[in-house]
Specification:
With 438 residues, the chain is of the alpha/beta class. Helices cover 38% and strands 20% of the residues. The protein starts with a helix and ends with a helix.
Length: 438
């Protein structure tokens, strides 16, 4: 289990909590790891134990494994059963009857024992248990834990015993804050949530605007950029040799590389016409595009028609819309009043219990409306304009204005070295997003 998977799965299950907490040590923290509840999620616990075993345990020398109360006990039990390692258990108090044991299990003096625990905060409970085990004649050289949350300057051996941790607090904090920023505004299971998940795991906010005119160009570009993008934006009606085979291959690439598809149709007609444009014709956009772009110029009925089509196809929650609330072309007529009215349509749909609207195509975030993604086109590292009314901004500029997604077209497909350009946009865009979120 890598760091991102660890944070994602534990945040999903509310095992990592974000707020104001007082730890057992009395320290204050805004992050709390409720790892005791891992026993309610055996698949996650098993995945963590396998990672601990592969990274540390299989390479250490010992005869017994000892899990400390309480979370360390099911951890040690899982490892003991799966890998056939004899287990010991330190009692909270010595038995007053029978054998009067303080340590349960079979062992001899000078046997080597590996300690397993969930979290080190100060190390006080570990010190106590190490002393008990040593007093009983056991030899302790190593401790393995899931998380070390001690301050960096206070880390090191405990009672002369080396500590191995799967994660350290400072390494997780960025991913925890990123998760909060990406996910908290979206309904779990929604299309926006799916996009956030792709962004989080692939570390990209790059949307490729593939404004090319042949199937070959489109598929080659999608395959090349696929590992580095969260979404590809198509203008399918400019592809001169369009056929269903193109769509099939594009869908295959989206699964292979885990990216979503936006058809930049910019619907702008009465509801009935938009309904047929979306569901019919030669393109049948509803069948393959996760998202479509829509103008709000014709009002609320346009969106109702799209929503109706989605529900009729039983695709509710699997198709969504980005509304045009701003444009990168010089002299465009989308003013502030238009943008505000567009937002009102989105909020009306949201309040009517539909998650149809996933975001906005806009030049900046409109303050106070954070329930949606903001995606900005016209991103280009090199150019300020193209001589045809298109104005450009850098990834850093648009993210600083509040955009979550950077949309890049000619900066990639016209680049001499497309592969290098894709990587540069992905890295710069993601770095800017992390800095803005944190």
């Amino acid at each position: 289990m890598n760091q991102k998977d660890f944070v994602y799965q534990l945040m999903q299950k509310n095992i990592i909590k974000y707020g104001d907490f007082t730890l057992k040590s009395g320290q204050k923290s805004n992050i709390y790891f409720d790892l005791r509840t891992l026993i309610a999620h055996p698949l996650i616990l098993n995945h963590i134990l396998d990672t601990l075993f592969e990274k540390y345990i299989k390479n250490l020398t010992f005869k017994h494994i000892c899990g400390l109360a309480y979370t360390g006990i099911p951890m040690a039990s899982g490892i003991s059963l799966k890998y056939n390692i004899p287990m010991l258990m330190v009692r909270k108090e010595r038995k007053e009857y029978g054998t009067k044991k303080l340590i349960e299990g079979l062992y001899n003096t000078y046997d080597m024992c590996l300690i397993i625990d969930d979290v080190i905060t100060t190390g006080s409970s570990l010190i106590e248990n190490i002393k008990i085990l040593k007093k009983e004649g056991l030899v302790i050289h190593n401790i393995v834990v899931i998380l070390d949350r001690r301050p960096v300057n206070e880390r090191g051996d405990i009672e002369g015993v080396e500590v191995h941790s799967l994660f350290k607090l400072e390494d997780l904090e960025i991913d925890i804050k990123l998760y909060k920023k990406l996910y908290d505004r979206f309904i779990t299971g929604s299309l926006s949530h799916k996009l956030a998940t792709i962004m989080y795991h692939k570390e990209t906010n790059l949307v490729l605007s593939a404004d090319v005119t042949t199937s070959k160009e489109l598929l080659e570009l999608a395959d090349l950029a696929g590992p580095y993008i969260c979404m590809i934006k198509t203008h399918i009606d400019i592809v001169q040799d369009f056929d269903q085979n193109l769509i099939n291959k594009l869908l295959d690439l989206s699964k292979k590389h885990k990216f979503m598809i936006m058809e930049d149709k910019k619907f702008a007609d009465i509801g009935n016409t938009v309904y047929h444009q979306y569901t019919g014709g030669i393109y049948k956009i509803i069948d393959w595009a996760d998202f479509v772009t829509v103008h709000s110029v014709m009002g609320y009925n346009t969106f109702q028609s799209i929503d109706k089509a989605i529900k009729e196809r039983y695709l509710n929650g699997k198709r969504g819309v980005f509304i045009l609330a701003g444009a990168s072309s010089d002299g465009n007529l989308i003013n502030n009043g238009y943008s505000v009215n567009t937002l009102q349509i989105a909020l009306r749909l949201l309040h009517n219990d539909t998650d149809l609207i996933s975001g906005f195509i806009a030049q900046e975030n409109i303050k106070g409306f954070n329930e949606f993604f903001y995606a900005t086109p016209g991103v280009n590292i090199e150019n300020k304009n193209d001589g045809q009314g298109q104005t450009y901004n850098t990834p850093e500029t648009v993210v600083k204005k509040g955009s979550d997604l950077i949309i890049v077209g000619r900066g990639i497909y016209n680049a001499y070295d497309k592969s290098s350009a894709i990587k540069e946009y992905q890295q710069r865009g993601w770095k800017a997003l992390i800095e803005s979120y944190l």
